Structures are given as C-alpha cells and as structure tokens.
C-alpha cells in the first residue's frame, strides 16, 4: 500500500520506485523508453473515488527534482511504482527509493523545441515520423527533462528545451504539436568548400598567364603575305591575313590602372566577379579562338569534284580468225570471266568483211530406183 494519503481532494501517495526492467514478465521497451508509469491496483480505486478526469496525469517529485508522467497500467505490486530508466535519472532515484506521486493537470501543448544529445540522430532519414511514433508512448513533456526514445535498436537522448504554453509541463495527448529542432550536441557546421571557378574565368586566366610568360621575341608572327588562287573566279585577287590584334586580349584597365600593368582577372579569394575585359573596338571574346566561317567562293574552290566514270571502248589484241567454211571472219573470243560476268563494257566486234557471191546448185539429180 502507498505511504500517505489523499489531501485536499487530490491524489497524493508515496511509493517505492523501481525501474521497468525489475518487473516480472517480458521486457517492455515501450515503457522503458516512454513517459508513462505503472501503479498498483489500489491507486486506481482511489482515483476513481476522487473522480479524476482523463487523461490521468501525475507529478513525480523527490526533493527539488520533479517531472510529469502519465499512467499505463495498474498492475504493480502494492506499495511499488515502476518508472522508465530516464525518469529515475532525472529524479536522481535509486532502486527502492521513495517517490511522491501526485495527480495534476497540464495544458495542451502547441509547441516544443528539442535538442538531440548525439549527432547520431542526424542519421535518421525521417525524424518527423520517428518522433511522431515515439511520442505515442508519452502523455506529458516537462521543460528540462532529458527523455529517451528507441529507434532501430538505438537509444537517442532528447532534451526538452522550450514548451508552449509557458509553464513547467504540457500535455501532448490528442493535440497538434509543432516540433522545432536545435543542433545536436557536438554538431559542427561543415567547412564551406571554395566554389569552383567558372570555365570562362579559368580560360581567361590561363590565356593571360601564357601571354605574360611568353616574351615578345618568342611570340609567333602570323603570315602577312599574299596568296593567289588557281581558280579563274578569284584569279588576281589576294587576301591579307587577319591581324593578330583581333585575337589578342587586352586586360589593361585604363581608368583605374594608370601604370599600364595587366590587371588580374580574378581576385585573391575568388569571392567577387572578375575584372572587366577592355577589348579593342570591334573585337569579341568567346573563351576560345574564333575561326571565321568560309565564304561561298572558298567553299566552292575547296569542293572536291567527282571522278568521271570510264566511258570509252576497248580493243582486243588478237586479230580476227577466218571461218574455214563460210570464209568470214569470226569474232574474237570474249574477255569475260569464267562466271560469265564482265567488269567492263562489251567490246564492239570489228566490221565484217564482204562475203563472196555463192552460186547455188542448179543441176539435176537421178534416182537409183
């Protein structure tokens, strides 16, 4: 039985406290990592006689330490109360110590700010769903409590930093609760990675560095002569090579740099935009060497003509043979392959010689009968 009794119309008892792990039967993870306690059956009879309204909320205290909890079942032995392990640490209780359990009322909470006590909490892919499922095992939240939740065989400590409405605790039964997260204990902001330089800036800097490193005497001079075309359309016309000034880049800032030194296109830390390019009038820079397209005459001159197909006739090397019977010349043997296919056009036959006049037989014959 409890120590003490009801005072002032409320429930107030003292019990020997034990952790949930000391209960007989199977282990209850939802109780050990929740915010509800287990009272004896006599407490239910007293609460019923006092007409305590649902949900039944209690204040647990020992000396200057206090917290709040709900009740899960009334199956504890008489004179005992079973608490979650984190609640015993909050109240600085040991197994078998006396704790005061008193009924109380708390307002419905609307906001809570929590702080995970380990950076491992950041490994949870969906913390909102995990907290929503874990808070089902809690009836109250007390400001300053370091509660524990279990997820995926891991235990995470969470500190309750702020609650609304302001007070010592709130009820989270059948209410919409807004949750805010503070950075976990031991969390450090990642070091910002320097941004990668844009492609245009890197090309400009590389080209400027190459031009500065190359002495004037070693620079290549483009061809400045004249050329003649073989085609009649452009015969006699010459084209001059484009000046190398069109491909040069001038980075001299005439307004701000009176000494004529080349201005670096990038600042030291790369946090600002590069300096403007002061190009000669009529020049554009695209980040690479510009190759003008060919004109219509150049394209026509470089066009490759198709090779003509052989269209002539062939001659045989053997003379025509005479036919012994008819006296005519027989055509030369064919040059076709054994398969009957010829890779060339058929050779025309030589002109036939005139045939001699043949007189038919005009005599008479006699029969032997």
Quick take:
The chain is of the alpha+beta class.
Secondary structure topology:
Blueprint: E1 12-19, H1 29-32, E2 36-40, H2 41-49, E3 57-62, E4 65-76, E5 80-83, H3 85-90, E6 98-104, E7 111-116, H4 127-134, E8 140-142, E9 146-151, E10 154-164, E11 169-171, E12 178-181, H5 199-213, H6 296-301, E13 321-322, E14 329-330
Parallel strand pairs: 1-5, 2-4, 7-12
Antiparallel strand pairs: 1-6, 3-4, 3-6, 7-10, 8-11, 9-10, 13-14
Fold and architecture overview:
The protein contains six helices and 14 strands. Strands 2-4-3-6-1-5 form a six-stranded mixed sheet. A four-stranded mixed sheet has the order 9-10-7-12. Strands 8-11 form a two-stranded antiparallel sheet. The chain has helices spanning 29-32, 41-49, 85-90, 127-134, 199-213, 296-301; strands at residues 12-19, 36-40, 57-62, 65-76, 80-83, 98-104, 111-116, 140-142, 146-151, 154-164, 169-171, 178-181, 321-322, 329-330. 13% of the residues lie in helices and 21% in strands. The radius of gyration is 53 Å and the shape is elongated. The model is unreliable at 3-8, 234-271 and 332-343 (pLDDT under 50). It is an alpha+beta fold and 369 residues long.
């Amino acid at each position: 039985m409890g120590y003490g009794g009801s005072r002032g119309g409320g429930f107030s008892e003292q019990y020997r406290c034990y952790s949930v792990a000391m209960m007989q039967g199977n282990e209850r993870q939802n109780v050990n990592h929740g915010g509800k306690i287990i009272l004896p059956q006599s407490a239910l009879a007293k609460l019923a006689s006092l007409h305590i309204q649902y949900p039944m909320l209690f204040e647990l205290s020992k000396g200057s330490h206090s917290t709040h909890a709900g009740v899960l079942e009334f199956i504890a032995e008489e004179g005992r109360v079973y608490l979650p392990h984190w609640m015993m640490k909050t109240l600085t209780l040991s197994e078998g110590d006396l704790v005061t359990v008193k009924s109380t009322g708390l307002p419905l909470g609307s906001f809570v700010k929590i702080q995970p006590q380990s950076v491992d909490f950041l490994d949870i892919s969906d913390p909102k769903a995990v907290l929503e499922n874990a808070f089902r095992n809690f009836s109250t939240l007390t400001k300053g409590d370091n509660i524990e939740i279990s997820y995926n065989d891991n235990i995470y400590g969470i500190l309750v930093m702020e609650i609304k409405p302001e007070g010592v605790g709130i009820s989270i039964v059948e209410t919409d609760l807004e949750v805010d997260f503070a950075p976990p204990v031991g969390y450090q902001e990642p070091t910002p990675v320097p941004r990668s330089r844009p492609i245009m800036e890197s090309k400009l800097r590389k080209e400027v560095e190459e031009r500065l490193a190359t002495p004037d005497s070693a620079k290549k001079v483009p061809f400045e002569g004249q050329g003649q075309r073989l085609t009649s359309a452009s015969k006699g016309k010459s084209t001059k090579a484009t000046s190398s000034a069109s491909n040069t880049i001038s980075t001299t800032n005439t307004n701000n740099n009176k000494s004529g030194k080349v201005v670096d296109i990038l600042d030291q830390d790369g946090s600002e935009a590069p300096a403007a390019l002061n190009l000669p009038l009529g020049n554009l820079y695209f980040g690479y060497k510009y190759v003008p397209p060919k004109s219509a005459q150049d394209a026509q001159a470089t066009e490759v003509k198709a090779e003509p197909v052989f269209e002539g006739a062939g001659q045989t090397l053997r003379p025509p043979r005479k036919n012994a019977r008819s006296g005519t010349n027989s055509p030369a043997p064919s040059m076709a392959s054994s398969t009957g296919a010829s890779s060339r056009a058929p050779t025309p036959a030589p002109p036939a010689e005139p045939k001699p006049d043949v007189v038919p037989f005009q005599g008479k014959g006699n029969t032997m009968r």
